[in-house]
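Feature request, filed as a ticket because there's no other form

It would be nice if the structure record came with a short human-readable summary line next to the tokens. Right now we just get the raw output. Example of a typical job, pasted below so the devs can see what we mean:
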Amino acid sequence: MSVSLSTGQSIRLDHADGEGGPPAIRLDLDWQGAPRRGMFGSRRREVDLDASAVLFAGRVLADVVFFQHLVSNDGSVRHTGESESITVDLARVPDRITQIVFTVNSYSGQSFAEVQHFNCRLVEQSTGAEFARFTLSGGGEHRGQVLAKVGRDEGGAWELTAIGVPSQGQTFREMLPVIENHL
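Raw output as currently delivered:
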């Protein structure tokens, strides 16, 4: 059963069938460019957004997965490289990694004013069952957004929290001060 999340809401990540340890999950992003009106009618703008997964050990940056580094050093997190999807095998994430923060940014410098219908879906990788959907508002002159984080709770179970906070950073590095506010 899928949940539509709002900023600040969390859900626990268990297998859809309730069996086994933590699941492998996939974060999928989907958006459209805002229409551009011109002398010869309107057409959609091409907007290139890039997803990243930033891995933390406590509050210390431990690794990052993005279009120039498609697989985490331990192999538990993978970026598809083509579409903006990131998979995380939660059972393989090393114990020292306590949080994984998902971001999206416009490396080319386009603002989110050129984006509409921006959705973030979290699905169970093996079954395709949707855990949650998070619809983000388009618009704004920001160049990036901190989407959500997956973190271990005190009992060691994984939880997804929707964040949805804009940032001016065009890369995950430039977004780190905003990300750190949500650890």
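Something like this underneath would help us a lot:
The CA atoms of residues 59 and 183 lie 7 Å apart.
The domain at 3-180 is CATH 2.60.60.30 (Lipoxygenase-1).
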